Amino acid sequence: MTGGGRPAVPTPGAPPRPSGRRLLLGVVWDVVVPIALYYGLRAAGVGVFVALLAGALLPALTTGVQWLRTRSVEGMAGFVAGIMVLGIAAALVGGSPRFLLAKDGWLTGVAGLWFLLSIRARRPLLFHGGRPLLEGRFRSDGTSWDVLWDREPAFRRIWRVSTAIWGVAMLLDAAVRVVMAYTLPVDVVPGLGALLWPVTLLLLQLVNGVYYEVAGLWRLTSGTTARPAED
Fold first, then answer.
1. 3-state SS string for the chain
2. Domain locations in the chain?
3. What is the pTM of this model?
4. CA 23, 24, 29: angle at the middle one, nearest 5?
5. Each residue of 145-194: pLDDT tens digit?
6. If exposure means fewest CB atoms within 10 Å of the residue's CB, which of 20, 140, 162, 199 is most exposed?
7. Neighbours of 72 (CB within 10 A)
8. Contact of 56 with 193, CB cutoff 8 Å
């Protein structure tokens, strides 16, 4: 609802809002299924390299199916698929299971650098990622984030700082994954890598949640803070 009691009108051109079910299915397919496939193939006597390769191909397969259906690929999905295909190709040339194990670490590291580089872009990466999930849903008076971005220097600063937090956290996560891939027993790494995702994401949510509260994000989106003129 807007401040005058009218329902918020969706912003033209705003990104579609993913449903909770769709997000959950995406996590299951991209994280849980590859791990289950790896350990299932290993239990059936399949070699480490082939089992890892089978799991690594699943996210790329998802992107391929999306392209066949819509003849288009979302930016993040295309980026992830491209990095994974390059990693698989490099692993095939070298034939190294350790490289495939470290693939998630390299991918996460590149994504972390992408987050950091986007800080100086017109709008940082986390703004685009958080908008479909939060705009008009949580502590909102219905004001478009485009309006808030134009009017509120604090709103812009919040999203740039939180994008930096994500970038640094992803680089640390990547470093841990690469170290695990090259030092721990091969069959232990996929399971530990899967467990590291929820730990990293939970810590990020906690840190960002505290930062958003302290920095006043929800006061801005709910319209309870006086808004100065554009800078």
1. CCCCCCCCCCCCCCCCCCCHHHHHHHHHHHHHHHHHHHHHHHHCCCCHHHHHHHHHHHHHHHHHHHHHHHCCCCHHHHHHHHHHHHHHHHHHHHCCHHHHHHHHHHHHHHHHHHHHHHHHCCCCHHHHHHHHHHCCCCCCCCCCHHHHHHHCHHHHHHHHHHHHHHHHHHHHHHHHHHHHHHHCCHHHHHHHHHHHHHHHHHHHHHHHHHHHHHHCHHHHHCCCCCCCCCC
2. 19-95, 101-231
3. 0.72
4. 100
5. 999 999 999 999 999 999 999 999 999 999 999 999 999 998 899 889 88
6. 20
7. 9
8. no
Separation CA 163–CA 127 (nearest Å): 8
Q: What are 82's two structure tokens? A: 């491209």
